[in-house]
Specification:
By secondary structure, the protein is an alpha/beta fold. Helix content is 55%, strand content 10%. It contains 22 helices and 11 strands. Helix 3 runs parallel beside helix 4, helix 12 packs antiparallel against helix 13 and helix 20 packs across helix 21. Its main location: cytoplasm.
């Protein structure tokens, strides 16, 4: 702790220093000033916890010094030592926050008691200030999530057809009382350009955070809208406009420019029509969503899609379900050539389609995953084991786009072949049951490192006992399952540690650890140093 002694008589200052056991009080820095002006000069350089001051001094006196400290919001506790038993001085001292008023000559016991009381008072107030600061930090962290929830609820309420309530907190923050119209624009992160997908693989939350920040940096100065994560859809950021709606095209151009500069990629927007605020929120949202889902993925279209530009033809005109029996026979044969022929028969008809929409791709994915799920149930029944809840493969939307963001049927072909071939290996067809299953398990962990992965999950997903997986995995890959997973997580964490805005606890959660202390232990095991030490280097 620090203390400042202010008195125009040097012998008084020396007496104060000699009378007190400062080490006992925990005060290790003592400063001096001979009048109020020089005290203010000292206070410009340090922040003492306690100030002892005389009242009668040349130039600026004690009363003026206390008044200055109160005006500047100084938190120091003040003790007055004066040779004058003057009611006016005592009252002035109390008015400006004086802790005690002691008379000269100085009584050591009284001074010690006053200092102890001042120290205790400062510590209590400092603890309260720290608690308030921590609460303020927590509120600021929760506030964006709370706003996202409120705006999302407004869209849901509008869709339910009931009375739409604009929360008071949003009215006050965004001056929404004056809003009469609104327009919803959806920024989609569901189908990403390959370079963006690779960059943010496993870090979709970070991608969403970056995009929302860029949008709101442009929207905030004019207060004509707000961007937020839509709680009812995993891959949608809502840009809600309520003012200057005629300028939406210029606004999107600015947002796109900001995103390209910061993320080096482009995203698709679905634009709804202007509607009444707040009752038309859901209608404008549905229009924007339809514009995205019905765009033709085969063509190099604009990144901005309005609802009247949606394509209606070709939706659901080709079904994976119609090819299920052909796929089943090929998979159970275990022959790669048969699987290739079955996949090619589907793609021949897909190439004839003039239009393939996102809605069509989503239907294919649903049919594909449902088909694999049924097969898993059948396989489990044959082997008298419990089936896993999810298929071993999926048809992710984002991996089906080429570098220009258009649908690639060649990539569709590759994904179908990989998925069906992997399933054929699980069935044991063709006498090659163990073929690359350990590699599939390794790939599964690489794709799911950011969530909880247990040996039981892997066992149920790949229909192998935990003991067999543990033994075979180490034989083929040279380390046990969880050392392999830990190494993947640590490598991802090393990249995230380069971002100074991310806390260690946040990084731990992003790479799959709920406990940041355990994460630090694992990190040190692989790197020989803690995450903080690595970040400093």
């Amino acid at each position: 702790m620090k203390i400042l002694i202010v008195d125009d008589e040097q012998h008084v200052r020396e007496a104060v220093k000699l009378l007190i056991d400062w080490e006992q009080l925990g005060i290790d820095e003592i400063y001096e000033a001979d009048n109020g002006d020089s005290a203010i000069e000292v206070l410009g350089n340090i922040q003492p916890e306690i100030v002892i001051t005389d009242m009668r001094m040349p130039n600026r006196d004690g009363v003026e010094l206390l008044a200055w400290m109160k005006e500047k919001g100084r938190k120091s506790k003040t003790i007055v030592i004066s040779g004058y038993d003057d009611f006016h001085l005592v009252r002035s001292s109390m008015k400006y926050g004086g802790q005690d008023y002691l008379l000269k000559p100085i009584d050591p016991e009284q001074l010690m008691e006053a200092l102890q009381k001042a120290k205790q008072s400062w510590e209590q107030e400092d603890q309260a200030r720290r608690l308030d600061q921590q609460r303020s930090i927590e509120i600021n962290q929760i506030k964006p999530v709370y706003r996202d929830k409120l705006f999302s609820t407004m869209i849901s309420e509008a869709g339910a057809g009931g009375q739409v309530a604009v929360p008071a907190v949003l009215k006050e923050e965004f001056q929404l009382d004056r809003a009469t119209e609104c327009q919803v624009i959806i920024l989609s992160t569901g189908m990403l350009e390959p370079q963006i997908s690779r960059k943010f693989d496993g870090n979709r939350d970070l991608l969403t955070f970056c995009l929302i920040n860029v949008c709101n940096e442009i929207l905030k100065p004019k207060n004509n809208g707000f961007a937020f994560r839509y709680w009812n859809s995993e891959h949608e950021i809502i840009i809600l406009l309520w003012d200057r709606l005629a300028d939406w095209e210029d606004l999107l151009a600015q947002i796109t420019e900001g995103i390209v500069k910061s993320i080096h990629g482009r995203f698709h927007y679905g634009v709804g029509h202007k509607q009444a605020f707040p009752t038309g929120l859901s209608l404008s949202y549905q229009e924007a969503r339809a514009a995205l889902k019905q765009r033709n993925l085969l063509k190099d279209n604009s990144y901005v899609h309005c609802s009247e530009q949606g394509f209606k033809t070709g939706i659901h005109s080709l079904s994976i379900a119609a090819y299920e029996e052909r796929f089943r026979l090929a998979v159970w044969s275990g022959k790669e050539k048969d699987i290739e022929t079955a996949v090619e028969s589907f793609l021949e008809n897909a190439r004839l389609l003039p239009v393939i929409t996102q809605e069509q791709i989503e239907l294919w994915r649903f049919e594909y995953e449902s088909m694999l799920s049924r097969w898993r149930q059948e396989l489990a029944a044959k082997q008298d084991i419990q089936a896993g809840a999810e298929p071993s493969s999926s048809l992710p939307l984002y991996v089906l786009l080429d570098e220009q963001g258009r649908l690639s049927l060649e990539l569709c072909r590759r994904e179908l072949l990989n998925g069906l071939t992997a399933f054929a290996a699980l069935t044991g067809a063709g006498g090659n049951k163990e073929h690359s299953i350990m590699r599939d398990i390794a790939r599964y962990m690489e794709q799911n490192y950011n969530r909880e992965v247990t040996l039981q999950d892997i066992s149920e997903r790949f229909y192998l006992s935990r003991e067999y997986i543990s033994r075979r995995f180490k034989q083929e890959l040279g380390e046990n399952v969880f050392d392999y997973l830990g190494r993947i997580r640590v490598e991802k964490a090393k990249l995230l540690l380069q971002n100074p805005n991310l806390k260690i606890a946040q990084i731990a959660e992003m790479v799959g650890y709920d406990d940041d202390k355990y994460f630090s232990k694992v990190f040190k095991k692989f790197e020989g140093q803690s995450p903080n030490q690595y970040r400093k280097l």
